[in-house]
Write a structure and sequence with these properties.
- The protein is mainly alpha-helical.
- α2 runs antiparallel to α3.
- The termini are far apart.
Amino acid sequence: MLKILQIVFFIIGISLAAYGLIARDFQLNFLMFFFLGLYMLTSGIQEFQRGKKVYGCFLTGVFLFSMYASIQSFLWM
């Protein structure tokens, strides 16, 4: 289940990034950050389950930073 969520979040995030680059429309960057942050969270949870705590903490930190950037860019829109 976690692997399916990870793939879905990754595909949505990369699709939004590709759309922004092709169309040169960067108004959806906050959604790209949001979905790629959720991808990092699911990756971090998966690494915690494997027993790799340092890498899991790193990915959780990346998730928190990504959520901060997403909210900040949404508010400045």
